[in-house]
Amino acid sequence: MDRSEALFETLIRLADDHLILGHRMSEWCGHAPMLEEDLAMPNIGLDLIGQSRPLYTYAGEVEGKGRDEDDFAYRRIERDYRNLLLVERPNGDFGHTMLRQLYYSAFMEPFWREAKNSTDETIAGIAAKAVKEVAYHVRHSGEWVIRLGDGTEESTRRMADAVEALAPYVDEVFADDEALDAAADLGIIPSPKNLRAEWDARIDAIFAEAQLERAQTVSISGGRQGRHGEQMGFLLADLQYVQRTYPGLTW
Amino acid sequence: MSSEIPLWEVFIRPRNGLAHRHCGSLHAADETMAIQAARDVYTRRGEGTSVWVVPSAAITASDPENKDENFEPAESKIYRHPTFYEVPDEVGHM
Q1: How far apart are the CA of B64 and the nearest CA of chain A, in angstroms?
Q2: Which residue, of A27, A55, A199, A248, has the fewest CB within 10 Å?
Q3: Structural domain tally of chain B?
Q4: A125 — phi, psi (to 5°)?
Q5: Nearest CA in chain A to B2
Q6: Rounded to an integer, what distance in angstroms lies between the CA atom of residue A25 and that of residue A46?
Q7: Contact yes or no for A80/A63 (Cβ under 8 A)
Q8: Given an 8 Å threshold on Cβ–Cβ distance, is B26 in contact with A139?
Q9: Could you tell me the pTM of the whole model?
């Protein structure tokens, strides 16, 4: 895999993670349990989608086939999306959504911090902006996980259920991947597997405060290869609806 | 919900050198969450460089019933406004 291939595949993986998770967050708009969160969650969603845009645009430039951000976001089939299974998981309840956000943001915070020193100038620039946004996402979701985990009987039970439900999708975040490994070797991004120890320490610290136990489970993966869960099709149907119904529509 | 989650008053300072100004209220479980919620609700468009939150319960307010005795006496004392001085043009904006 040469540099531009590794770079392209890496950009698509990162951009898809951010777009899909951002879309999931946007699904809370108008449905959050309180007004404050009805603003906070779409804010996070907008940050994520905002981060996906320069990644897609740059992927299009690297690829050199004239595809733009909309082509990647709206005009691909399910198997072409390379996002982690974690980020496409349905929202579930509020605690479930916050834990999913914490898992992903606690991975991306050190990722962007390291990527600020990328050998690729564009990625370094995107990282410099994203690192501030993701720090807030970790804080916001982490604080909720602590309060719900160490909250009422019901909130504790729901958080424990969320830990159980999301456990199978954690290993994939740090798994070996040909494109990401190649990009890491070239100094374009940090290697995900090298971020695992920091992630574990972060989650353990939050779980200790939240009185939550980590769950042991069998891992599920496939998102990086385009093999998605049964919910992904419904998500894309929503996400792509306008472009599929009125191809090329602009406003 | 309001009976379970305390109410907070939010103060935002728009720029260095200006004072924090009251801009609204919100519900949050504690001061940490209140600061986060204030950031999300009231600084979405770059309104602030600093946020204060104060438990609404900590605010002692004047009684609306005493409005007349508190505030009306000041209305008839126009001499407290320095509006009778003629400012020479050379002074410019004061």
Answers
A1: 29
A2: A248
A3: 1
A4: -70, -45
A5: A34
A6: 8
A7: no
A8: no
A9: 0.89
